[in-house]
Amino acid sequence: MGKTLNIYEAKSQLSSLVERAAAGEEIVIAKAGHPRARLMPLDKPGTARPRRPAGTLRIRHIAEDFDAPLPADMQAAFEGKDEEPL
């Protein structure tokens, strides 16, 4: 963990803390001696994991009855209908 500052110190030095974090330093901001937040650098452009194009989820198995109608009681529950009395 990096340097720890209280909130008052962090507010008065925010601009320099942001620059230090951008340079790679991790700064912890505490309140009443308890860590509350962490200031750290963002990933540099091009270093983040590339996003997967929409619709390319790798599905290993879909049940044969995936799109079969629901049982009547479950369908009624989804539609907010009361169940039959006992």
TrEMBL record:
Pfam families: PhdYeFM_antitox. SUPFAM superfamilies: YefM-like (SSF143120). Signal peptide: none annotated. Transmembrane segments: none annotated. It comes from the Bacteria. InterPro entries: Antitoxin_Phd/YefM (IPR006442), YefM-like_sf (IPR036165). NCBIfam families: phd_fam (TIGR01552). Antitoxin component of a type II toxin-antitoxin (TA) system. Belongs to the phD/YefM antitoxin family. This is Antitoxin.
